[in-house]
Design goal:
The complex is a heterodimer of chains A (181) and B (244). With 181 residues, chain A is of the alpha+beta class. Chain A folds into two domains: 8-84, Arc Repressor Mutant, subunit A (Orthogonal Bundle); 95-168, Arc Repressor Mutant, subunit A, CATH 1.10.10. Chain A is 44% helix and 14% strand. In chain A, strands 3-5-4 form a three-stranded antiparallel sheet. A two-stranded antiparallel sheet of chain A has the order 1-2. In chain A, 27% of the residues are buried. Chain B is α+β, with helices and mostly antiparallel strands and 244 residues long. Chain B is built from seven helices and four strands, in the order ααααβααβαββ. Chain B has helices at residues 19-30, 39-55, 62-79, 96-122, 148-161, 177-190, 206-221, and strands spanning 143-145, 193-195, 225-230, 236-240. In chain B, strands 1-3-4-2 form a four-stranded antiparallel sheet. In chain B, a hairpin with a 5-residue loop joins strand 3 and strand 4 (236-240). In chain B, helix 1 (19-30) crosses helix 4 (96-122) and helix 2 (39-55) packs antiparallel against helix 3 (62-79). The two termini of chain B are 61 Å apart. The chains are: A alpha+beta (181), B alpha+beta (244). The A-B interface holds A 21, 23-24, 61, 63, 70-75, 78-79, 81-82, 87, 90, 92-93, 95-96, 98-99, 101-103, 105-106, 118-122, 160-163, 169-170, 172-173, 175, 178-180 and B 15, 17-21, 35, 61, 63, 67, 92-93, 96, 99-101, 103-116, 118-119, 121-132, 134.
Chain lengths: 181, 244
């Protein structure tokens, strides 16, 4: 990629400014396009920014999520901000919804009945609620009788839980092989 | 966990997400080897618990009952004497399927706890709201977000003005939502914002209004545009999101 005559300090400032005005996660690719610089450079600069913020315990920090980066406030000041701005309490997910979400996240694409088998309960409205909150979507249809819908997680899911990508989910806790002798 | 005694105290019951959750709880509580569940004991406790749930008016869903039946079935199978030494190869522990199911469930229950923790972490981080405008425009404070209902109201007004006579005909070569999106995008390439009314300068038929409505909704969804309404005068403006 053609590189403009811009030194690292300027580049860092520019990237910081872009992150400041951009409200959604922005990919390294998009950033590199915007400032006409190598993705590897951008990554380096963002890493430096993140360390800068960290070192001075800044009010903001770099968040890597949903395949991009964005600025967020330092969680150390979360409680304070909440009371200062009387932030509406975000409606958290129920245990049941989280179980369903976890199963979809790890096993996607998955049908509703497969989820029900694992959870051992029927989930009538659960999926609709999750769809309405845009955390899961129908990704296709299974090639089996009745062509049931297959569900998967959305970008919003990654954002909501602050995950970089589905691959970054912690590995399921391994459990030793079953042994029935 | 409370025993069923009429003590007059309120017994705090953990809420279980289903039979698997309850079973897992009982197994953990009894500190038994999951690979060698004393099925009689667990079944008894399970049934006790369900009765307790009934007593305090927790709705016991069908799944709990099905699991109770499964447990009793396994228990009865375990009672049938098997000569393990002879039938070694064919012998399958009747508990095996259930245990596998519980273990599988446990994995995702743990994963759900991880997600819960993540949710907690992120809830302490704040981001710029996505509709926030960075570049101010003239009298920005007078323009407010439009709700879907407002849009519907505006459109129904337009529909009133239209000629509804020819609703019954199907004419070929009607404009599609896709084309309409292209048209609106084209206009927005030249201007950053347009008046809503300006989309209806030419012929206005019900079809056009409906297609335009759908096109606008779609474009909002695709985050190509956002719509604002003037606080005082009610004019609606369509704004292009940055970038073309």
């Amino acid at each position: 990629m053609e590189e403009k005559n811009i030194n690292t300090t300027e580049l860092k400032g520019l990237v910081e400014a872009i992150l400041f005005v951009h409200s959604e996660p922005i990919t390294y690719g998009k950033l590199s396009e915007m400032v006409q610089n190598d993705t590897s450079h951008i990554k380096q600069v963002i890493k430096e920014l993140a360390i800068d913020y960290q070192n001075r315990n800044a009010g903001i920090k770099i968040m890597e999520m949903a395949g991009g980066v964005r600025l967020g406030t330092n969680e150390a000041y979360g409680e304070k901000l909440k009371s200062l701005f009387q932030a509406k309490k975000k409606q958290k997910f129920s245990k049941a919804s989280l179980e369903t979400l976890a199963i979809i996240a790890y096993k996607q694409p998955i049908t509703r009945s497969e989820i029900e088998t694992i959870r051992g309960v029927s989930i009538d409205n659960g999926l609709r609620d999750l769809m309405e909150r845009d955390l899961i979507k129908i990704t296709g249809r299974k090639d089996s009788p009745g062509a049931p819908a297959l569900y998967g997680t959305t970008k919003k899911f990654l954002q909501y839980f602050g995950l970089k990508s589905i691959k970054e989910l912690p590995t399921l806790k391994e459990i030793k092989e079953l042994n029935f002798d | 966990m409370g025993e069923e005694k009429d003590t007059g105290y309120t017994v705090k019951l953990e809420k279980f997400e289903g039979p698997m959750d309850l079973l897992l709880y009982l197994i953990n509580k009894a500190e038994i080897d999951i690979y060698d569940i004393p099925i009689g004991e667990i079944t008894e406790q399970y049934l006790k618990y369900i009765n307790l749930m009934k007593k305090i008016d927790i709705n016991v869903s069908a799944e709990f009952i099905v699991m109770a039946a499964t447990l009793m079935y396994i228990k009865s199978k375990m009672l049938i004497p098997t000569d393990v030494e002879i039938e070694d190869e064919y012998f399958e522990d009747p508990r095996k399927e259930l245990v596998e199911q519980i273990l599988e469930y446990q994995k995702f229950k743990n994963a759900a706890d991880d997600l819960k923790q993540k949710e907690e972490e992120v809830s302490n981080v704040f981001f710029r709201p996505s509709s926030q405008m960075v570049m101010e425009f003239g009298d920005a404070e007078n323009w407010v977000d439009v709700k879907l209902l407002d849009l519907i109201n505006i459109f129904s007004k337009f529909i009133e003005y239209t000629d509804t006579e020819d609703l019954g005909y199907i004419l070929p070569e009607r404009i599609t939502v896709g084309t309409r999106i292209d048209q609106i995008s084209e206009i927005l390439k030249e201007k950053d914002q347009i008046d809503f009314q300006s989309l209806f300068v030419e012929k206005v038929e019900v079809w056009d209004v409906v297609v335009t409505f759908l096109a606008i909704l779609e474009m909002i969804k695709q985050r190509k545009i956002f719509v604002k309404q003037h606080k005082l005068f009610g004019d609606i403006k369509i704004f292009r999101r940055e970038g073309k």
